[in-house]
Design goal:
It is a peripheral membrane protein. This protein is an alpha/beta fold. The chain is built from nine helices and ten strands. The chain has helices spanning about 15-25, 70-80, 100-110, 125-140, 155-165, 185-200, 235-240, 245-265, 285-290; strands at about 5-10, 45-50, 50-60, 85-90, 115-120, 145-150, 170, 210-220, 225-230, 270-275. The protein is globular and about 55 Å long. Bound molecules: guanosine-5'-triphosphate (GTP). Guanosine-5'-triphosphate binds near residues 18 and 121.
């Protein structure tokens, strides 16, 4: 009997949702960073075994939105919990349980969908402390299962897949076996470039960055030509991203090119430009244009 199902991964920003998804799939489909609010849209990741298929939905971290983009992100995360077979509520167990966690759990009360507590980052704290925090969480919600893992180090992640199999139902294979994400290649490239910006800049800048790949074609010489615009919200941010004598932009381009070459197994010529689009995170038009609206709503 073939089993399948949809499982949504939700939690506060920065708890490790995307890291978990990538680990479960054995391939990077969602970018990660040490900055909160890295993921901006819902991302489907597909795990296919001999007898099962799990479609994971990675979501933006649930937070108090400060602009229209934030509102769209939280809406995307919330809508992902509807019509799924199970919800993974993932938390960073190395940090004290805070208002952010209880806020999400309150929103999940009275749901019929089972909620699995995934206590992540156990590599960072003692077992006793992890146990105490898990107990505290258990008193806040009636979880259908609880598992402690390290998404980064892959501790207990296969155990999680085994556990998730119990939540699947007899059903079709929704995606072909070799497909691991529904994101178009263009979007993957945009995200790869944005990840490098997140890695190389500090708090204020990366949140206001959007990347648009507007050209992607293999030239006669066999090299893949990729051209992209990086949009920032302020002139000062443009200067930061370009860096002294263009150094930072060069490094962003270099790191992104290496990853894109690796992804396509092809030589790549990457060109990037930095443009200012004032306060785009509050412009519904720009959010639509960058594909950041929640399409299911
Ligand atoms: N030590 C440790 N770090 C982890 C673990 N899982 C994730 N991280 C780190 O936590 C940070 C956030 O990880 P992400 O996967 O981007 O978190 P996210 O929940 O998807 O974040 P948003 O997109 O902002 O909602 C990154 O620096 C990860 O490397 C873990 O199990 N152990």
């Amino acid at each position: 009997m073939f089993k399948s199902g949809f499982i949504s991964i939700i939690g506060r920003p920065n708890v490790g949702k995307s890291t978990l998804l990538n680990k479960l799939l054995g391939q990077k489909v969602a970018i990660t960073s040490d900055k909160a609010q890295t993921t901006r849209t819902k991302i489907h990741g597909v795990l296919t075994g001999n007898e099962y298929q799990i479609v994971f939905i990675d979501t933006p971290g649930i937070h108090k939105p400060k602009h229209k983009l934030g509102e769209a992100m939280v809406k995307a995360a919330r809508s992902s919990t509807i019509d799924v077979d199970a919800i993974i509520f993932i938390t960073d167990i190395s940090e004290p349980i805070g208002r952010g966690d209880s806020f999400i759990l309150e929103g999940l009360q009275n749901r019929e969908t089972p909620v699995i507590l995934v206590a992540n980052k156990i590599d960072k704290i003692s077992e006793d402390l992890a146990k105490a925090r898990i107990e505290e969480l258990r008193s806040m919600y009636k979880f259908s299962d609880i598992i402690a893992i390290s998404a980064l180090e892959g501790v207990n992640t296969t155990g999680l897949v085994t556990l998730l199999n119990d939540y699947l139902q007899e059903g079709p294979q929704y995606y072909p076996a070799g497909m691991i994400t529904d994101q178009p290649e263009r979007v993957l490239l945009q995200e790869m470039i944005r990840e490098k910006i997140l890695q190389l800049t500090r708090e204020e800048v990366p949140h206001g960055v959007a990347v648009e790949v507007f050209q992607m074609e293999v030239g006669k010489n066999g090299i893949l030509d990729v051209s992209a615009n990086i949009y920032v919200e302020r002139d000062s941010h443009k200067g930061i991203i370009i860096g002294k004598q263009g150094k930072l932009l060069k490094e962003i381009g270099k790191r992104a090119r290496i990853e894109i070459e690796d992804f396509f197994n092809n030589k790549v010529f990457l060109q990037v430009w930095v443009k200012v689009k004032k306060n785009w995170r509050d412009l519904p038009g720009a959010i639509n244009e960058f594909g950041l609206n929640d399409k299911d709503q």
